[in-house]
User: Fold this.
Amino acid sequence: MERFNSAAATMFAFLAPLLAGAQGAAITMDGLFDDWSGTLTTWNDATVPSSGLDLISMQVTNDQDHLFIKLELGTETDLLDDLTPHGIRLYIDGDNNAATGLAVQSGYGAELQIRFDTRTVTEYFGTSSNVSWSTLDLVPLPTVTSTVFEIAIARNARPDGTNLLFSSSTIGLLIRETDGGDAMPDAGSVLSYTFDDAFLATTAAIPLMRLDPEAVRVTAWNVLGDGITDPALQGPYQRILSALAPDIIGFSECVTSTPSQVKSRLDAWIPIDGNGWQVVKDDFDMVIASRWPILTTWTHLNRQFAALIDLPATYATDLLFTAAHLNCCTADAARQAQLDAYVQFVQDARAPGGLISLPSGTPMVYAGDLNSVGWAQQLNTLETGDIQDNGTYGPDGPMDWDGSGLDRAPCRQNEARMAYTWRNNNSAYPCGMLDHLYFTGAVAELMGSFALRTASMSASTLLASGLEEFDSSLASDHLPLTADLALPMAGMNVVVRAILDGPFVPGTGLMHDSLRTRALIPITEPYSALGFERAGSAGETIDNSLLTVIGPNAIVDWLLVELRSPTDPTMVLATQAGLVQRDGDVVAADGSPALHFTSSPAPFHIAVRHRNHLGVMTAGPIAPVSGTLTVDFTDPATDLHGTGAAVISNGTMRLWAGNALRDGVLRYAGLDNDRDRVLTRIGGVIPTNVVDGYAQEDLNCDGSVKYSGANNDRDLILYGIGGSVPTNTRQEQLP
Assistant:
């Protein structure tokens, strides 16, 4: 028995048509299936054959250019080979006429048969003949074993060169597995699909330009038989590489090309300062080119070539780049062994000693022509570290620094919803996704990635990029893959000292920690909720163990540290919320004695702000350092921006308290004064009232808002404006 769900025009043979509105969909052919909705036309097959492969279900949809079919099977299968024996065939009745074409089953007259295991396409317009898959623009993905596949066929296909395959708006579809006899649908039913011509899919173009100028751009490209040094192909290669403008490139199939030949071309096509491109080659066909020095290479990996790239000092670490060109076609065992060996190499790199030792957090990129056909386990090994031959290559292990697997950069063609990376119209194999780019996502953020196929690009984009329509197909049968990765920038630790005048206890040199002892310090930094500008990180959360510390290192309150532009000090470049201790030391939320910032190539001002004290900033920009920078806002010798920016008494500099309104001005009287905010907080009528809690108006940070009596908050405002003339004000000296 079979069950049929319809969101498109369908009918059963010998039964009245079941009519429903067709539903098109913008399917991206990437072998991931996340864009296949359950509302699309679906045929579920409940028949379980006694032998052969079990057909589970089929979905159908379309856009203005393609018919899309999703096929689910009962066993992991290599659709395009006989790795697991099968006889899967797709029949298309393109004119919806059972009297024409091949009478394959009752109600069907198929104009086309696709036999996937032998990759044979046969047309039945009058006399039958075998034709190339390219006449259909056929794309089946994935190209490795799976239980689910998606298939695209061009709606304007003319298999025999003359007759349109889809000559009717309604077509018949049939899938059979001839080894065991399973079919969707079984004899007696016909699956008819009506194209949704009202649906017009759009494709978002992926820009060729990198969106983040500090991102490292990596490209991997199989250049098909030394194409990069072929004099006849210099035009396409120059235009493509100039348009991509990568920083690091992994080429394969450079069998006779020498490093000096590749370097001379790159130096001419993409000129860079200094000594030009750095180019190295392994002992077979792989070349790595880099804008930056190449420190070390490893050639012991079969058909995999690793190099450590010396990134500029603005980055936190170097980068390990591995170019790959794994064995082709039916060499599943060889590919598995190669990837087992690479996992072993990564485990060695992540641990001290051995052949290679990388500092923790070093980004790793693995890219190239992986010839990913056959068993999907090979890619699974690369992604997860699941070694198959542990006896030879050692134990499994994570591929990323946080214990997770590698991330794969999705490389959809830049102006098409297709993710195949290889195409050869003269091959027996249809388009495939053979090339991949993986990276350590724990220490690298993917900013963008794509495969460049000029034939699918608009004329305007080609013109703007200096490319020509057939550049990519002339250059190679593989498309170049490109990814932009945001890598950790060089770190700078900032040690800050600051004292708040509100909780300062004269004669001790320390602040009190009443907020801590009364368990009032919030677990998450309060500045984001208060509306303070945050640049970069936010939402820091305190390590609870810090709140148990007593003595001079006890926590007083949260504090905000800012890096500001040297040319426009009003511009906040980066912020960190830290915790000020009783002795003035500012520690990170995790207890680290320094706040970690990504250093800027330019100098910067450093500012400190508190929720009810006036902020302060260094008078001049401070040059970034490699390591730790110390700024002591408790030392009167530290030059501050502005005049009278801080309290200075008894050899100690402190932030002015009293900004209950948080407007950057201390006012005791007049409009928008801070004194009234304190009074309002306690109820506005009885001046002796006290309100407890973590409050903006708690200017001495003791956990209570008081308007009168000992240790009241009102007196701090009066002190801040001079102590005698109530109409005086004090302006915060932050620009």
Q: What stands out?
A: Residues 491-731 form one domain. The longest strand covers residues 66-77.
